[in-house]
Amino acid sequence: GEGEVVSPRGLASPRGGSDGASDDLSPRKSDTSSSLSTSPHSPSGSACSPSSSSAFSSISPSTPQISSVVSASTPNLSRSAPSTSKVVTGNFCTLDRIVKDLTAEKAPRPDYLCGILSTYRLFTTSETLFGELKERFVEATETKVIITQIRVANVIKHWAEHHAEDLLLDSVLYTAVLDFLETSLGPSYAAVAKRISDLLVKNKRGRVERIEFANSLIPENIEVTLVDGDVFAMTPEDVGKQLTLIDFARMRLIENRELLSCAWGLQDKEKAMTLAGNIVLHTGQFNRVSNWVTSSIVSEINIERRVEIIVWCLKLMKYLRVIRNFHTMYAVMAGLTTTPVYRLKHTWTKVEVEFREILQEVKDLTSPASNFKTLRQAADVAKPPFLPYIGTFLTDLTFILTGGSTTSTEGGINLTKFLRAGKVLKKLDQCRKYSFHFVPEPALAWYLAKYAPLDEDEQFLRSKQCESSSQIPLGTPAASTS
């Protein structure tokens, strides 16, 4: 209905009593501040159909790759929803009802507040939402309903703390918020207004620092003389640290607006970069690492040296598992299990069993069975810092956002759908709170981020040069060679 809120079944009620108190700005004896995470806004008109979105593909059934950058011909896991999931249908309500629940006398549950502020750009604009909140505050001022004023201030504080990009990237909106803090909120709640202003400044500085750090890892003006042989003469641990810094820095740059766009796998690469550029770069690095592993192995014609490279890569993969970098670990595993590498029967027979077991362990960990259940469980219990496999998040968001309707025929908003998406966004954001503190090595990082691998045809040609295909069926698994 137009004037009533409907609490979705299976989801927490938007109002949460004491559960929401930790993020409440109600006056206390000690302080009025609280806490909050990244940025939401989805460009209208962005393609979100399963057929137009991609993320991960497989060259062989056991070899997933993030393929929207590397190969347009390979199938993508994100193009179809997991069969074990349910289509998002949902319950519907109006924006006016949502705003009233956010600012009601009883504080909204934290997950409800976070879910709405993470995904609101899918059903309204920043300007409209802020306008609604401002109007609520003005109405409460006129009627002297202090608790509503406090709730409005709390929502804006949460917005500024956890989703500041929305406010920082829109200069008109940013100016309007500052004006509201000074002229409306400030006179009665000076401490709260200052807290919100400080959060905006802090997050603006943090955003710049994240970008600068990512750029400093791979400086454009550096002269790099590293070659493949130099890298494999290094320890797998040293290389693993630089790969982790690169991938973690890029993951931290991904904003909610990109995740909500479902545009990372568009065939129009220019549009994909515009709408989800940081995701495209992050998935592109996954492919680069995978193809670096494959290309390095099949480019070595000497079988003994080829075995050494495989063992080195297996040690690298093991180290990445130890430091909880599941994303890059998966990329290395993908490179080791492509057909050009997997078919090297005679090479794999020379790899000691203990190293082949490492590969099998990681294959079991990254099995796509039950929607990557084992990998998800490992990430759920991992201690920070850790780097999750981005594929599970992209698959979940694609399924949620492309399944079921966004609005009802009467214009109601599918609250269930957006709160489910909000949970995925919050989970990813929690992975980015703690950083890896490794020392950057610009020359090595530049090599790893700029490496130009062989294309798939050349990889297979080199593989046949290493070992004739006349007696080796394609896809011969390494485990069967022992």
Folded structure, characterized:
The chain is mainly alpha-helical. It is built from 21 helices and 4 strands. It has helices at residues 95-102, 110-119, 126-143, 146-162, 164-168, 171-185, 190-217, 228-232, 236-253, 256-261, 269-298, 303-322, 326-336, 339-342, 345-349, 353-365, 369-381, 390-402, 415-431, 442-450, 456-466, and strands at 57-58, 64-65, 92-93, 413-414. The strands form 2 sheets. A two-stranded antiparallel sheet has the order 1-2. The chain has a two-stranded antiparallel sheet with strand order 3-4. Helix 18 (390-402) packs antiparallel against helix 19. It is elongated and about 85 Å long. It starts with 56 loop residues before the first strand and ends in a 16-residue tail after the last helix. Residues 1-89 and 469-482 have low confidence and may be disordered.
What distance separates the N and C termini?
66 Å
State which percent range the strand residues make up: under 5%
The description of the largest β-sheet is: 2 strands, antiparallel
State the shape.
elongated
Radius of gyration: 25 Å
Low-confidence stretches: 1-89, 469-482
As laid out across the biggest beta sheet, the strand order is: 1-2
Give the overall pLDDT as a whole number: 81
Count of individual beta strands: 4
Number of helices: 21
What is the N-to-C order of secondary-structure elements (H for helix, E for strand)? EEEHHHHHHHHHHHHHHHHHHEHHH
- Give me the secondary-structure category: mainly alpha
Q: Helical proportion?
A: 55-70%
